[in-house]
């Protein structure tokens, strides 16, 4: 009976699980990362923001460019979604119809020399910026939200590079309204939708950071790998250059590069890549020095000697043997530095030295938020600021959790 129960009964897990000791490095990092609640929550928030930024045209109800500007809703406040009002409850979310109040101006009276009409116009605050944000809300006319609506056409997947003609276009969007446009976060002074611009700005900023980190990673691996493996005079020369780049303040270099770029006739895309390359090329020193220190220690190990006796060249030993032993730290360092690269691009654009209008980036939108008119009369244009804070904090928490997960001694602390 005991043998039968032992065979078909509930099997208890062994107390000593050998899978922990046989798991690979990345499996251990993944297991430790899942135990960090803050890192997991931040990873979900970060993944959501990146996904919405990558598929921004699909999630955007309005074209973010000047082509989609709503001339009848300039400086418009956010349009709130409702499920119920005085007319009853609705399972479908809806918003109301907004009509801008037009100042009354008697042109015939002005033409006849009567200035009372002009006095009434000026004394009624119709020319003030705060009065230009007033709209009449028609609560009797609902506009219901529809999903997967047909709208402006955009490129879903564009791989038209290197002679490959692959541009998949689509005109479907996640949501919209029956008539007109919906502006969840209001519009700017040109009538462009703030919500749609912010979604597009997320991916532009992240893509600049990706290009900059690729340049930084390649430069760091090249300088640190060559300097650490060969040592001697090569190490002294490369480390001298690295220290020179490291001690020079970044802001003056960015200013000089911005002035140089302004003298060139560059398209927005060329300027975009130029800024990414400049940011990445000036940020390689820290990782390059750490990699050089690691390789100086590892180059005397037996597996390196075995590779040399087998006839492997210096390049193969560096890229196939020495650098992979430092992979976990490289990944963690790259992710931790992601928000700092985003801050660099945003700072340049905020100061007017990076990307400029009409390009959508978080730095450009943050630059607009410093306008006193926006701070007083269009507070909804601070929505990109909130998204920027969430994006940076998500990267920081994910990077911090990943750094602890990659530390082999974290469980002993």
Identify the overall geometry: elongated
Roughly how much helix do the residues carry, as a percent range? 40-55%
In percent, how much strand structure appears in the residues? 5-15%
SSE topology string: HHHHHEEHHEEHHHHHHHHHHHH
Strand order of the largest sheet: 1-2-3-4
Tally of alpha and pi helices = 19
Would you kindly provide a written description of the structure presented here, covering whatever features stand out?
By secondary structure, this protein is an alpha+beta fold. It is built from 19 helices and 4 strands. The protein has helices at residues 2-8, 19-22, 25-34, 37-54, 56-59, 107-111, 116-123, 194-230, 232-247, 250-262, 268-281, 285-298, 302-309, 314-322, 327-336, 338-350, 362-368, 372-377, 383-406; strands spanning 82-85, 88-100, 135-158, 167-177. It has a 4-stranded antiparallel β-sheet. α3 (25-34) packs across α19 and α4 packs across α8 (194-230). It is elongated and about 85 Å long. The model is unreliable at 8-16 and 124-128 (pLDDT under 50).
Give a brief outline of the structure.
The protein is of the alpha+beta class and 413 residues long.
Topology:
Elements: H1 2-8, H2 19-22, H3 25-34, H4 37-54, H5 56-59, E1 82-85, E2 88-100, H6 107-111, H7 116-123, E3 135-158, E4 167-177, H8 194-230, H9 232-247, H10 250-262, H11 268-281, H12 285-298, H13 302-309, H14 314-322, H15 327-336, H16 338-350, H17 362-368, H18 372-377, H19 383-406
């Amino acid at each position: 009976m005991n043998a039968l129960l032992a065979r078909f009964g509930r099997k208890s897990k062994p107390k000593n699980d050998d899978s922990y000791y046989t798991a690979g490095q990345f499996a251990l990092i993944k297991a430790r990362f899942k135990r960090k609640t803050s890192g997991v929550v931040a990873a979900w928030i970060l993944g959501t923001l990146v996904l919405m930024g990558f598929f921004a045209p699909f999630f955007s109800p309005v074209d973010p460019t000047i082509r989609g500007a709503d001339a009848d809703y300039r400086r418009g406040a956010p349009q709130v979604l409702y499920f119920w009002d005085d007319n009853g409850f609705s399972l479908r979310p809806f918003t109301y119809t907004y009509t801008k109040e037009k100042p009354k101006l008697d042109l015939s009276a002005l033409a006849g020399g009567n200035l009372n009409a002009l006095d009434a116009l000026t004394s009624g605050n119709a020319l003030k910026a705060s009065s230009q944000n007033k709209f009449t809300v028609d609560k009797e006319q609902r506009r219901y939200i529809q999903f997967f609506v047909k709208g402006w056409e955009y490129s879903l997947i564009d791989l038209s590079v290197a002679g490959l003609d692959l541009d998949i276009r689509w005109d479907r969007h996640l949501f919209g309204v029956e008539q007109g446009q919906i502006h969840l976060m209001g519009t700017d002074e040109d009538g462009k939708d703030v919500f749609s611009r912010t979604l597009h700005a997320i991916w532009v900023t992240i893509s600049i950071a990706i290009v900059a980190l690729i340049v930084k990673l390649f430069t760091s691996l090249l300088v640190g790998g060559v300097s650490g493996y060969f040592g001697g005079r090569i190490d002294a020369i490369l480390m001298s250059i690295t220290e020179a780049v490291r001690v020079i303040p970044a802001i003056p270099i960015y200013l000089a590069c911005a002035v140089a770029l302004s003298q060139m006739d560059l398209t927005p895309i060329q300027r975009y890549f130029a800024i990414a390359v400049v940011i990445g090329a000036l940020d390689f020193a820290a990782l390059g020095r750490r990699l050089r220190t690691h390789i100086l220690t590892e180059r005397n190990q037996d597996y390196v000697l075995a590779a040399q006796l087998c006839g492997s060249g210096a390049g193969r030993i560096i890229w196939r043997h020495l650098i992979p032993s430092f992979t976990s730290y490289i990944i963690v360092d790259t992710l931790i530095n992601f928000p700092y690269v985003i801050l660099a691009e945003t700072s340049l654009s905020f100061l007017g030295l990076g990307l400029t209008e009409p390009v959508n980036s978080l730095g450009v939108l943050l630059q607009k938020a410093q306008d006193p008119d926006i701070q007083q009369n269009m507070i909804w244009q601070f929505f990109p600021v909130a998204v920027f804070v969430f994006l940076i904090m998500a990267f920081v928490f994910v990077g911090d959790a990943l750094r602890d997960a990659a530390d082999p001694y974290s469980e002993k602390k």
